[in-house]
Amino acid sequence: MLESTEVLTTAQMRAIESAAMATGQATGLQLMERAGRAVAGQIRLRWPKPRRVTVLCGPGNNGGDGYVVARLLHRAGWQVRVLGTDNPPGPDAAQMKRQWQGIGRIEPLTLAVLQGGAEGGVHVDAIFGTGLTRPPEGEVAAILHHLGRIKPPLVAVDCPSGLCMDSGALLGHPRGGGDLAPHANVTVAFHRPKPGHVIGLGPLLCGELVIADIGLHDVDSAPTARPAVIWPPFDIPRDQPDRPPTNPLLKQSPLHPHKYSHGHALILAGGPARGGAARLSARAALRIGAGLVTLAPPAEALPDHIGQPDALMRRAVDHELQETLADTRLNAICIGPGCGIDRAGALLADLLPARRATVLDADALTALSRDAALTAALHDACVLTPHMGEFARLFPDLAERLAATPSEGPAYSKLDAARDAAARCGAVVLLKGPDTVIAAPDGRARIHSAFDVPWLATAGAGDALAGMITGLLARSLPPLEAASLGTLIHAQAARLFGPGLIADDLPEMIPQVLRALQKFQSSSSVATALPMT
Ligand SMILES: NC(=O)C1=CN([C@@H]2O[C@H](COP(=O)(O)OP(=O)(O)OC[C@H]3O[C@@H](n4cnc5c(N)ncnc54)[C@H](OP(=O)(O)O)[C@@H]3O)[C@@H](O)[C@H]2O)[C@@H](O)CC1
Ligand SMILES: Nc1ncnc2c1ncn2[C@@H]1O[C@H](COP(=O)(O)OP(=O)(O)O)[C@@H](O)[C@H]1O
Ligand SMILES: [K+]
């Protein structure tokens, strides 16, 4: 279970470790002993009966953790084989290595030696951790390739070796190409998840992620630059079954709440026979709690939208929006789903100067990418929701950096790309995928992991998400919060529905998700304290 929700870069983690050591909270040796003990403990939890284990130790402190694991498993009756490098390690790892050498021998860390030993048993990957700076090569690369091929039960110390913990990229491999890398059954990381555990290939290669407490909590206040926050899947915590329902969607407005105090969302739709996407957005905005939702196609497409839901209002909007926007109660706009690129461009020219809270999706993003003046008119109440293809059209240089084969660590990450894009355009950027990253222009960022719901990748799911975020903006949530909560509710709706989901099901699942959200104490508890199941 993930209890911590801040995601720290490796540099931030090192700063915290250094502060702990400098202030005398813990020595490096103590931290290493705790790290090794956490890994050995997780191994014994999974394999309670002692068996054979091969511990692969690298040249740095990750290897030092490995020597601790070897010692503790030996003490617990396991049959331990250790392979290690000759390089002189740092003082803490050297001390742990010596302690192991008092117990058993260290064989060379080569593929021939590994293959020459008895087959089977658990393997512990303690070759490289946060100190990985360049692609593994030579014997280590051969060993990693071998582990990827034979797929033994594998426990990774801090991360599977070769994975860049800042980006989730495999150094030296084309992005996304992780088929031959070792896949851990479980990864035991320390203190906090790192971006590479939750984005890119990380979730695929890490297996189950366990974050072990190594006693660094007291120095959390060490100066670090804006850690990102992870929004994992949520469940009702078993130890807090009946928290009062105070989530922001259930809060009544003061004194005399009425539909206008829950906002009025405008969903701009496209021409004839293209209305399905916008209707999905509108339905999602209604279900998530916007007080009123108006669907606005051009007059010629208005007849397409008769029928359910009756709660949805319709009005024609042709080429200009100024008259419509004169109604200041329209406080959240969705533009893009099924809109048509030319229509989206024309409407954005009116819409953006009005500085209303606005979700820009699909065709609106393509229109933006074709018109620099529109991009320049973006503002901090805008939420852009690109998938990677749309992102590449909007920010080609950032997408190119993100797609390049990483040759050194820390590699450029999806988190970096979303942050850079948000800073550049001055709006919230939500970069979609199983690892959705949401960034604000000021550097705040959220990662939402939905690797467990691949069936969410279905036509129209993005339109429903745009509608949910628009509905939350109508409810006056700030853009980053609306984007984050919308993403969370969207994935949870898919999770509750299960495989077989089509986009039309997403709005219908919202009430069930909202009922579960009632159990959480406040919006901030939703943001920062959700356990990963
Ligand atoms: N700090 C702490 O308090 C705690 C840290 N802990 C543990 O320490 C880990 C971080 O340790 P670390 O910084 O020593 O880095 P690590 O990942 O062992 O590798 C560095 C070594 O590998 C080398 N190297 C790198 N890439 C290479 C390549 N491609 N091919 C070959 N060599 C390569 C690099 O050499 P260099 O780049 O200097 O030439 C250096 O020698 C962390 O993940 C956690 O497990 C825990 O004990 C908790 C307390
Ligand atoms: N493999 C995946 N696992 C979980 N969610 C995914 C995956 N791929 C995409 N998604 C999510 O599915 C939705 C798809 O949106 P989008 O690409 O805009 O589709 P569409 O344009 O068909 O509506 C996004 O919310 C995205 O984050
Ligand atoms: K490792």
From TrEMBL:
It comes from the Bacteria. It catalyses: (6S)-NADHX + ADP = AMP + phosphate + NADH + H(+); (6R)-NADPHX = (6S)-NADPHX; (6R)-NADHX = (6S)-NADHX; (6S)-NADPHX + ADP = AMP + phosphate + NADPH + H(+). Binds 1 potassium ion per subunit. K(+) binds at N62, D125, S161. (6S)-NADPHX binds at residues 61-65, 129-135, 158, 277, 338, 387, 463. Pfam families: Carb_kinase, YjeF_N. Residues 13-222 form the YjeF N-terminal domain. AMP binds at K432, G433, P434, D435, T436, G462. In the N-terminal section; belongs to the NnrE/AIBP family. This is Bifunctional NAD(P)H-hydrate repair enzyme. It comes from Paracoccus fontiphilus.
